Design the sequence.
């Protein structure tokens, strides 16, 4: 099985190879029509030299650059050095000199897409053909400098095209990398949302179910009410999860950010924990409704995660919640007594990490840990940076 050539890293568009084949065809036709009685000699040489462009137009990348150069240069070099033996006019006025334009075009093409070796080979064969024609026909001596200058211009033009295409490829790769990074950050954001929603749902639902189990025999009506609350909370949280996962939609659609909770939903969140049996001492300073969607969602998730952790690690313990909205900063403090059961108080859990990431995205700071028998979560969010973001983090 034959090996296919390695594709060019420059990745020119598919329409480029057929377009590149047009100038050599034009130069070849001019050479043949003005060749006089030796037209058939010129036609054979030009026809063989033009075949690689035909193959490359049909199957880009074939033939390989080195073979391409040798295939084009060999018949043209023979025509321009020994063609006079078959009646070809090699003087400076002969139309056969247009075959040198094919070689000049070959130099530019190799400079635009090939490696160093094929490019040098194209340049050397062009120089050798011009020198050989000058030796074979002394009247051509005054024209050799013109053709070598043309080869130099073609070389420079090919380099510029190559640099432009390389830059374009690098930009596309950078855009792909940025898109991948954006997708990764979006997945992290969705994962944080789902984590917070699921943790809150399971915690409060289990509290209601536990209350229903304890009241099942002594107070069936209270048990039924607790189960109703658990069902209502489950349905509401399921809808919240669907809205969160719904953020993973097509790129041309606007994310449904208004469906996410904000700071004005914090009182409802606190009521759900009170209904589940958690003792809360809440103090709110400032207007929560003035917060931007980004800051509001962050504060909501912070309170939600902190209450879930308190209910899971210190069940039955009272929880203090302090919310303060100032001119340039919003602060939330959630604290509860540390249980004597050896619960983890290192502040390195996934929930704390997620809270710290949320606050960090808005330029704020979060501290979580145990001190003097009290576990506390304290976060400060600068409202200037949060307000400018405009969308949930």
Sequence:
């Amino acid at each position: 099985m034959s090996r296919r050539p390695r594709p060019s890293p420059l990745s020119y568009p598919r329409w480029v190879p057929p377009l590149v084949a047009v100038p050599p065809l034009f130069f070849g036709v001019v050479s043949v029509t003005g060749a006089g009685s030796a037209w058939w000699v010129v036609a054979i040489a030009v026809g063989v030299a033009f075949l690689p462009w035909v193959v490359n137009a049909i199957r880009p990348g074939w033939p390989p650059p080195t073979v391409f150069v040798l295939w084009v240069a060999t018949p043209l070099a023979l025509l321009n050095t020994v063609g006079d033996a078959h009646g070809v006019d090699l003087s400076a006025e002969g139309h056969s000199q247009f075959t040198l334009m094919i070689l000049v075009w070959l130099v530019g093409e190799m400079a635009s897409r090939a490696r160093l070796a094929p490019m040098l080979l194209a340049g050397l064969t062009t120089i050798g053909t011009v020198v050989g024609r000058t030796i074979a026909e002394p009247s051509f001596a005054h024209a050799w400098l013109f053709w070598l200058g043309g080869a130099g211009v073609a070389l420079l033009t090919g380099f510029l095209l190559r640099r432009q295409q390389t830059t374009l490829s690098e930009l596309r790769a950078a855009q792909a990398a940025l898109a991948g990074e954006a997708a990764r950050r979006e997945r992290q954001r969705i994962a944080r949302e789902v984590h917070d929603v699921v943790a809150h749902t399971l915690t409060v639902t289990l509290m209601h179910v536990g209350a229903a189990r304890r009241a099942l025999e002594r107070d069936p009506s209270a048990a039924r009410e607790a189960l109703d609350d658990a069902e209502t909370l489950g349905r509401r949280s399921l809808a919240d999860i669907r809205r969160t996962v719904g953020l993973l939609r097509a790129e041309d659609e606007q994310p449904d950010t208004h469906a996410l909770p904000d700071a004005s939903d914090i009182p409802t969140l606190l009521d759900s924990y009170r209904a589940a049996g958690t003792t809360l001492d809440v103090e709110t300073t400032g207007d929560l409704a003035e917060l931007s969607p980004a800051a509001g969602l962050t504060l909501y998730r912070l309170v939600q995660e902190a209450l879930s952790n308190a209910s899971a690690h210190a069940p039955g313990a009272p929880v203090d919640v302090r919310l303060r909205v100032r001119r340039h900063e919003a602060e939330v403090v959630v604290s509860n007594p540390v249980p004597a059961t050896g619960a983890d108080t290192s502040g390195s859990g996934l929930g704390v990490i997620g809270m710290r990431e949320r606050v960090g995205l808005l330029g704020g700071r979060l501290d979580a840990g145990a001190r003097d028998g009290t576990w506390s979560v304290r976060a400060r969010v600068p409202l200037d940076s949060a307000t400018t973001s405009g969308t949930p983090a």
Summary: The chain has two domains: 16-176, 277-393. Residues 144-215 form the longest helix (72 residues). Confidence is low (pLDDT under 50) at residues 1-9, 250-258, 385-393.
